[in-house]
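ZP: hey, is the glutathione complex queued? I don't see it on the tracker
AM: it wasn't, my bad. submitting now with these inputs:
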Amino acid sequence: MRLEHLRESAARNHFFPRALPKDPSTKLFIFMVAPNPTRVRLVLAEKRAAGAVIDLPEVTVNLLEGEQRKPEHLARNPRGKLPVLELDDGSYLTESTAIIEYLEERFPEVPMLGSNAEERARNRELERLADAGVLLPVAHIVHATNSPVGISPNPGAAEFARIQLPEVLAMLEEKLADGRPFLGGERPMVADCTLAAAFQFARFREIDLSLPPHLARWDHDYREREPARAVLAF
Ligand SMILES: N[C@@H](CCC(=O)N[C@@H](CS)C(=O)NCC(=O)O)C(=O)O
């Protein structure tokens, strides 16, 4: 039902930019709800909401229609994955973490990793937990049980990913136990964007993560904010 909804929206171009910009310029290739493009889009939305002026058109590559395997996308990323950032010189960045760190350096006026070495290290630590410890297992569960891109079910892989989740969720729960609004403290950081992208992907496929109370509170409050509302569909 929800997949149908997304498919129809894509077909109608309701949510998506209609055409490639004609002039060569920096642009971001994305697909809504896919978690790795989503975390990049959330970083952009957060930076913009905090005042950064970022002119970065988004171009949809429809994963449900298999556009990621077409030659024009394989020329951008031979792995056929999203997101991809095309730079002004026509070259491409193909990993979400590298893209986020590039955006962080290009638009440092709204820092989303921190303002000194220790803050950056702590926020990168949180980001790795959210990425490797939550987003990746969630993606494995989704694709091993009910893949939107048609990957065959694999109950063993889903079970293995499920076993990994509670430990990291418990670590993040402990961080939030002091009532802080965001994972790193008072302001949203990259880790928040990664976690929100992961939770959205779980919701999209109706996977119950049984979030403990502080994470449930964080999830609710994060999604109420304007930058999240502008990006998240589920
Ligand atoms: N390590 C890559 C992973 C990229 C990735 O797996 N992207 C997914 C969407 S979240 C994708 O494009 N899947 C399409 C496919 O596998 O056909 C990153 O962080 O950017």
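AM: back. The longest strand covers residues 27-30.
ZP: great, adding it to the tracker
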